[in-house]
Fold each of these.
Amino acid sequence: MFASRTYSDNDLSGGHGFKQMVEETFGVAGAFCFGDFVPYLDWLDFNGIRSRMQAVHKILDEFAENVIDDHIHRRMGEGKLKKEDSVRDMVDVLLDMAETEDQTVSRVNIKAIIVDMLNAGIETSSTTIEWAMTELLRNPAMLARAQQEMESTVGRDRSVNESDVRKFNCLRCVVKETFRFHPPAPLLVPHESIEGCSVGGYFVPPKTRLYVNVWAMGRDENVWKDAHLFKPDRFMGSNKDVRGQDFDLLPFGTGRRGCPGISMALSVIELALARLLHCFDWTVEGEVDVEEEFGLTVPRKNPLFVRRSWRLTAEYPI
């Protein structure tokens, strides 16, 4: 989406794959770092976090450099083509800004945005989809309802399109409940107060680091009935949304520091989940575990192993 081409694992150095690098990035970002608590001993790197960070940085930095170089070479090859006559993507826009904004957008800035797009756009969405599938497999009745809703709207002779998703009330309730029960970023992104203020009778001094525990908010019995149960029906007929206006459901944060990718994330998650449910029947052996792995995000600790079988009436390319 941001670079107008598809990248594969071969585009990363050292034989690493994108999935492995994204998981490692979020793993080290959320890991316990001894130096954060005893700064003068940070250089010792007791638990190896610094060396892991440097290894990930090297690989992702090389990838971002290659993306920028590819675009620069293509732009040079286009020669005298007018900008409006060429295909321009997000990296092109950033390069245009770097050329016209008195260098206020540097190459380092562009690389940082590329890496942010890569990490934030992949891991959080895939984690949410995986948790939604996990909970639906633990709730076969809800899984069947979601499939029946899609089948009655779309049929079984074609796959779901993006324009169909807005008609799937049950599916959208499943997505909202997944965000409540398994928020992809359980502490959101750390915030810092600019100036001193009073909140609820407590004085918060400037430069205070603030974490919002949306994982705990979503499981608070004072806010949600049966908070520890996965019940998408709680959102049926409700106007409660995940876009930051309902303060008991904030998977993307809110205000000026809310996630800028809300619309894209919802589109990707809803469409991907709809196609998985509509195109396939799913079975799993034994009990589905829900053990979490701590990091900047909270993915499943163990892979989700399931069997799938094609359920449409014809082989239709997804």
Amino acid sequence: MRLRSRLLITAPVILSCLAGGQEGVQPALAQGTERAVTRPVPSGADPLRKVPADGADATKDKGAADATGAPDGASSNASDDPYPSSGVTLYQRMGSDLPAVPPEKAYHGPIDEAYGAYQRGRYMTALDKALPRAEAGDAAAQTLVAEMMTRGLGIVHDAKGAAFWYGEAAKRGDPAAMFQYALLLMEGRNVPRDKAKADDYMRRAAEAGNASAQFNWGQILVADNPGEKGLKLALPFYEKSAEQGVADAQYAVSQLYEGVKDIAPEKKAKAREWLLRAAKAGYDTAQLDAGIWFVNGVGGPRDYEQGFEWLRIAATRGNVVAQNKLAHLYIYALGTRPNPVEAAKWYVLSRRAGLADPVLEDFYLGINEDQQKQAIDAANRFRRG
């Protein structure tokens, strides 16, 4: 049974530990059912070495804010994904049919009628079939009832009832239920807060193969074990979660492969590969890092064009640090042609979000008034879009 799950945020714990700032780090609390797109980027993010140090900080001076036409506290909005899928269109243009879908493998196991009804959106039927089994002690049915109560599908939303059924299924070893119940115990939400019990269920869910639990158990190990010890203990769980497609874990693997000492050379050689998997999955911090890695030659050869593209994607989706770095690339024609208006536009957006940069401010004040006006107009259109 694959139910929607929740993840903890990767970047603050992993990056803090790699930077030697482990003291006092705690795993971030579980997010809602929809994972946030934009992650917080730590201050002093790795500058592009091919351009002057940007000296970015969070302080504002009134003159700089006025120069970009932005009041204090203004911020930009992310736009839509700049790369929609075009595979079908490509085949149509070629005049070729799409490849045949491979035949499904025959399934000879027991049929779960309750979950089948749930998948088809027949929630009342699913509940009618699952509830008697749940009351009889069927862990999978208990997990399904808990999920339906959590989301209000086929039944009135009942967070306390869901917590009860998750707890019952967790006692019987259902991996998805153990993960969800661990989150409830961690937060003290509709159950008494109990870190030791939460950790036990998270570990057991991770060892049972739940991808989200594997990532989160890795987070707990990093937080509870300072330094490289915690990173090395967590790495096997991050790797298993990454293999199952969890972008947060893929990003974590890339950072550990690149940043931890004594990593096997064959693993270190795959750091960029894992980073790109996370970036392609839409993880904006990974997209930012991919751009910086390509420009600086981290984890492989330099490629300014690829670096530019990844920074452009992250910037377009609202990552403030990427917007700042992209402005530098437009100024120094790295991976793109020089474009003072585009450079100024991205500087305006990042400056409005509070990321000061003396180098870019000097550049902005050095272009003519018409270019400044074009840049501000472009930044305003981006925000409205």
